[in-house]
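Pipeline run #58 for the internal structure catalog. This entry was flagged by the ingest filter as a single-chain record with no existing model, so it goes straight to prediction. Upstream metadata was stripped on purpose; only the residue string is passed forward. Reviewer on rotation: M.T. Logging verbosity set to normal.
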Amino acid sequence: MSTTETETTALTDLLPADLLERFRARAKGYDERNEFFFEDLAELKAQGYLRMFAAKDDGGLGFGLEQVAAAQRRLATAAPATALAINMHLVWTGVAHLLARRGDDSLHYVLQEAVAGEVFAFGNSEAGNDSVLFDSNTVAQSLGDGSYSFTGTKIFTSLSPAWTRLGIFGKDSTGEEPVLVHAFINRETPGYTIKDDWNTLGMRASQSNTTVLDGVVAPAERVFRKLPVGPNADPLIFSIFACFETLLAAVYTGLGERALHIGVATVKKRTSKKYDGKSYAQDPDIRWRIADAALAMDGLYPQLVSVARDVDNLVDHGTQWFPQLVGLKIRATETARTVVDLIIRVSGGGTYFAGNELGRLYRDVLAGIFHPSDDESAHSTIANAWLGPIEK
């Protein structure tokens, strides 16, 4: 059996068709009730999904980014909101894995705890902070013993009902130069509040509530990085961007893939009076739109594989790495949005009714606009890589 065949078998064993059908059936209810995916999470845990990045010797599945991205693409064909939220756990375990691959075992405990059943979430996003990882509105205060307290508000905290470990960061401005302090807190730690404010257009099951930090303390052993404000070359930053952007792209690729398959099945079933009762699959205009959607998706699959594989293989793209990562994310989210729109146009008015899967995908895919890097930031990153920064 070839390597590709072995990986495909591992993927279908991890996410068998009957499991995906259960996820797909539940997704409708989660969306309608604006409810977290507790049942999906329990089944994913049982499959070992949350320990994909951990080495087999540590009790994990020993996957690299390419395999995890393939798994997330497959999961998203059934339940995009579930896949999107699980991404946040996979980002942190992926960061620990990528750092270890580069000789840094400082976050090995993340992988060990993931194997033990802990659920990691990403608490970095802040309203109005378009510097993303390069600055913070949250105040980090040194307590003198290596521990820090954090005060600020984090938005889009996916996995809010279920996380047991939350990665956060804030700015300590008390020294000669401000530093950004990265740390983890545990769910039982006092000093934070999770708002019940996730009532959104789409991706509802992710339950990405706002988290208010009010002096929550991360002990010294959970403070894992102090970095200068602004862009820097620390491997942590590359690892976060690589996992975050690649796995986001995987989710939206899977969403677009599902929409295309729904469209193909739908136009084969719908009949046309104009074509003497034949299916709409015979209509030249509809065939054109389906072909357009397939062409768009066909260009996305190899890009996702190539970027993830290069991360795994420690390929040095130098200053082109960040353009490649943000370019993949933008292409995936925009392609998926275009494909869903094309498929809705050929699928008839039934998609406009509440409860229709394509209608839900249409709402879910819009969330791709808001994930970092957004369109403006991505274009700025790519322009700077090719043209240099704007002269001052």
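catalog note: The longest strand covers residues 148-157.
catalog note: The chain has three domains: 3-118, 121-228, 235-387.
status: ready for reviewer M.T.
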